[in-house]
From TrEMBL:
This is Large ribosomal subunit protein uL22c. CDD domains: Ribosomal_L22 (cd00336). GO terms for molecular function: rRNA binding; structural constituent of ribosome. It is found in: Plastid. PANTHER family: CHLOROPLAST 50S RIBOSOMAL PROTEIN L22-RELATED, LARGE RIBOSOMAL SUBUNIT PROTEIN UL22M. Pfam families: Ribosomal_L22. SUPFAM superfamilies: Ribosomal protein L22. It comes from Renealmia alpinia.
Length: 130
């Protein structure tokens, strides 16, 4: 199981995630390396990390793993106010992050962010449960 917050659009992430959902680990790596999208690199790193977690923490073989669950969800917004003339203010929607920190002016560039969740399972255990 790997969760991560990435700086990419939800739609661009889903376009890649839909191609690898339900496939074996090795097949997913091959697909991600050959697809021409920029989002593939960040998702490839997540799949590598999930496989490393499974092999180190649970002593599973990487050849027996497959992607059982893969989701891309929208990140939450933070509302900020920008002071305007005559005592008025305009609202600004900013994407939140895991650790809030100072970002300078409140009318900066809005960047789309998303949550990516990838779950790897072993083939034999998955088919025995069903």
């Amino acid at each position: 199981l790997v969760k991560n917050v990435c700086n990419m659009s939800v739609f661009k992430g889903r376009r890649v995630i839909d191609q690898i959902r339900g496939r074996s680990y090795e097949e997913a790596l091959m697909i991600l390396e050959l697809m021409p999208y920029r989002a593939c690199y960040q998702i490839l790193k997540l799949v590598y990390s999930a496989a490393a977690n499974a092999s180190h923490n649970m002593n599973l073989k990487e050849t027996d793993l497959f992607i059982s669950e893969a989701k891309v969800n929208k990140n939450s917004f933070i509302k900020k106010l920008r002071p305007r003339a005559r005592g008025r203010s305009y609202g600004i929607k900013r994407h939140s992050c895991l650790r809030p920190r100072a970002r300078g002016r409140s009318y900066g560039i809005k960047r789309p962010t998303c949550h990516i969740t990838i779950v790897l399972k072993e083939k034999s255990k998955f088919f025995l449960d069903k």
